């Protein structure tokens, strides 16, 4: 099965009660691609989670921005995985660079948190990413691989994990990674999963990008073969978030179109009836759409008829 596109909105430490209601009402009113095509998860601060959950449309999900590393108890200020499950919050973001850097969360601690959250039934958006200094010294791949390995050392079932590559230098800076830079790291992360967990997990795990994603740059990023979605910060608080959701899926369609087009053009003889016969077997919605468009193109160009 293909990797379903994933768009997360990390609201970070932002919002008032009224602002949160306004954002939710905007999200509730928009027409977005179907649930089969894209998974949408918004992550407000803890205190707004019940409000957002109660007001948000049912095809969008919620995520907490953190949770405690083990069962609750005498840990002042923390929120446990059990509490999130009890509230019906399905997702949690763990290992965000703002927590790694500002609150000294180590790779091992993040690995422990991911393991515990999964064991309680939460789904996890696990973040990795290098600082500017690390990129400039050429250690990007080593850093993100170590961060991923610290999770992979403990987690073998990645069904409920989305890996988010968020270069620290791109977060909140307006300095987005180029599609090529992001694709290079995503493909390396997939290799890292292959080596440390296995080929099936590497092929099926969604690896999403975060760092200054906006309505203008999302399409090109989404068209990269190993970019399976976004974790959006600043732009997720604005109506622009909807453009990111929509543009991302449009881009994936373009990518699938190109791949199919190349495949079909590489076949020497192909009758349209053969293509038409295979249509019902194509369950991937993008591929289906693309094939229909291609057939129209072929018919009008009179290439194979
Ligand atoms: O940190 C991020 C999402 O988790 C990205 O933040 P920005 O989109 O504001 O750069």
UniProtKB/TrEMBL annotation:
GO terms for cellular component: cytosol. It comes from the Eukaryota. InterPro entries: Aldolase_TIM (IPR013785), TIM_sf (IPR035990), TrioseP_Isoase_bac/euk (IPR022896), Triosephosphate_isomerase (IPR000652), Triosephosphate_isomerase_AS (IPR020861). Transmembrane segments: none annotated. Belongs to the triosephosphate isomerase family. GO terms for biological process: gluconeogenesis; glyceraldehyde-3-phosphate biosynthetic process; glycerol catabolic process; glycolytic process. Pfam families: TIM (PF00121). GO terms for molecular function: triose-phosphate isomerase activity. This is Triosephosphate isomerase. PANTHER family: OS01G0841600 PROTEIN (PTHR21139:SF37), TRIOSEPHOSPHATE ISOMERASE (PTHR21139). Homodimer.
């Amino acid at each position: 099965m293909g990797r379903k596109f994933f768009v997360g909105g990390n609201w970070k430490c932002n919002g008032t009660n009224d602002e949160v209601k306004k954002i939710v009402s905007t999200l509730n009113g928009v027409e977005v691609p179907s649930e089969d095509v894209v998974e949408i998860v918004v992550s407000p601060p803890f205190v707004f989670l019940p409000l957002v959950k109660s007001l948000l449309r049912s095809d969008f999900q919620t995520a907490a921005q953190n949770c405690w590393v083990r069962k609750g108890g005498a840990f002042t200020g923390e929120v446990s995985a059990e509490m999130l499950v009890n509230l019906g919050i399905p997702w949690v973001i763990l290992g965000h660079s703002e927590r790694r850097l500002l609150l000294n969360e180590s790779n091992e601690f993040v690995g422990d948190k991911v393991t515990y959250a999964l064991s309680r039934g939460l789904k996890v958006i696990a973040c990795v990413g290098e600082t500017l200094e690390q990129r400039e010294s050429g250690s990007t791949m080593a850093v993100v691989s170590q961060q991923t390995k610290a999770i992979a050392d403990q987690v073998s079932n990645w069904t409920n994990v989305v890996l988010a590559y968020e270069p620290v230098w791109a977060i909140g800076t307006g300095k987005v990674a180029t599609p090529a830079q992001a694709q290079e790291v995503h493909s390396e992360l997939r290799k890292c999963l292959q080596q440390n967990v296995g080929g099936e997990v590497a092929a099926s795990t969604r690896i999403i990008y975060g760092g200054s994603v906006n309505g203008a740059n999302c399409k090109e990023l989404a068209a990269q073969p190993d970019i399976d979605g976004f974790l959006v910060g600043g732009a997720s608080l604005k109506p622009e978030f909807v453009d990111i959701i929509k543009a991302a899926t449009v881009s994936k369609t373009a990518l699938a179109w190109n791949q199919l087009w190349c495949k079909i053009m590489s076949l020497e003889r192909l009758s349209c009836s053969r293509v038409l016969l295979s249509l019902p077997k194509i369950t991937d919605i993008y591929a289906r759409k693309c094939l229909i468009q291609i057939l129209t193109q072929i018919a009008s160009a009179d290439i194979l008829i």
